[in-house]
């Protein structure tokens, strides 16, 4: 009895064709290459995201710096505003204290003679007020001859002031003029960030309004003395001779204008107009 024929057994050690091995290796290499490419693309994606986040972080730092700088500038501006306010308050407190003192001295019209050496009987042995002193000074100068020059008239005014006024009323007038000078010097010394030019003129006008008419001539004569150079500058700068009495103006006005200049007799608007015209 014949058995059916069995299929031939495969030989495990039989060699694989070279073409099949190469194909498999190529496919495996291609798969690895595709995987690496995909991983590279993913890495590139994360790199771009990292760059984006780095840029956003840098922008955030810059914005924070800008905000901090603005905050510092605002704080500095607030501090400067507060400082100016404090300086202005301190100035006004001192200023109005001096104005009050000036008013009190001006109202105290009894100028007790400090020395009884004058030859004028009106100023001997009795207290006199500032108006009377100004009248005595003006009467002494008014008698000067009409042909006298402005310079000679000013020199006579100074001489009569020294002999008739300083000799009798130095204490009272000195107190008043010192208070006046301190008040004007306080205004003039303020920095521009505290008081601008208009503010200085406004406060100086308050002071000028406190000067009695009878004292304007005495102020003019006092400012002509060599020891009162700083006071003379303040008289010119703030036009303190603007309200010189009409009777004094007629006799002494032209000579005083030669000595002081027109600005000492003008208000701020007129001075500004004159300066603008000279510049143009």
Summarize the structure.
This protein has helices spanning 18-107, 130-142, 150-188, 197-209, 213-223, 229-237, 246-260, 268-279.
Q: In words, what does this structure look like?
A:
By secondary structure, the protein is mostly helical. 72% of the residues lie in helices and 0% in strands. The chain is built from eight helices and no strands. It has helices spanning 18-107, 130-142, 150-188, 197-209, 213-223, 229-237, 246-260, 268-279. The protein is elongated and about 130 Å long. The chain starts with 17 loop residues before the first helix and ends with a helix. 22% of the residues are buried. The model is unreliable at 111-117 and 122-126 (pLDDT under 50).
Low-confidence stretches: 111-117, 122-126
Percent range of helical residues: over 70%
Mean pLDDT score, rounded?
Answer: 79
Query: What fraction of the residues are assigned to beta strands by DSSP?
Result: under 5%
Number of helical segments with 4 or more residues: 8
Give the CA-CA distance, first to last residue.
Answer: 147 Å
Radius of gyration: 49 Å
Overall outline: elongated
Q: What is the N-to-C succession of helices and strands? A: HHHHHHHH
Q: Biggest sheet: strands, sense, closure? A: none
Structural class: mainly alpha
How many runs of DSSP E, i.e. beta strands?
0
């Amino acid at each position: 009895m014949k058995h059916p024929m069995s299929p031939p057994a495969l030989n495990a050690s039989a060699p694989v064709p070279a073409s099949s091995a190469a194909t498999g290796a190529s496919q495996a290499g291609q798969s690895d290459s595709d995987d690496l490419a995909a991983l590279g693309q993913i890495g590139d994606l994360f790199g771009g995201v990292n760059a984006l986040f780095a840029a956003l972080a840098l922008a955030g730092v810059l914005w924070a710096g800008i905000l901090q700088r603005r905050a510092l500038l605002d704080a500095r501006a607030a501090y400067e505003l507060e400082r100016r306010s404090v300086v202005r308050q301190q100035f006004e407190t001192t200023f109005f204290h001096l104005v009050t003192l000036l008013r009190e001295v001006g109202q105290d019209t009894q100028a007790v003679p400090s020395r009884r050496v004058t030859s004028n009987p009106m100023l001997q042995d009795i207290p006199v007020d500032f108006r009377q002193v100004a009248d005595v000074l003006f009467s002494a100068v008014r008698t000067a001859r009409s042909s006298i020059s402005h310079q000679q008239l000013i020199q006579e005014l100074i001489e009569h002031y020294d002999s008739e006024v300083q000799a009798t009323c130095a204490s009272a007038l000195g107190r008043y003029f010192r208070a006046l000078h301190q008040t004007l010097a306080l205004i003039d010394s303020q920095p521009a960030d505290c008081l601008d030019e208009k503010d200085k003129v406004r406060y100086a006008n308050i002071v000028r309004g406190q000067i009695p008419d009878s004292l304007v001539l005495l102020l003019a004569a006092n400012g002509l003395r060599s020891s009162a150079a700083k006071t003379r500058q303040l008289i010119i700068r703030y036009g303190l001779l603007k309200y010189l009495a009409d009777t004094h103006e007629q006799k002494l006005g032209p000579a005083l204008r030669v000595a002081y200049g027109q600005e000492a007799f003008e208000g701020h608007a007129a001075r500004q107009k004159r300066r603008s015209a000279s510049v143009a």
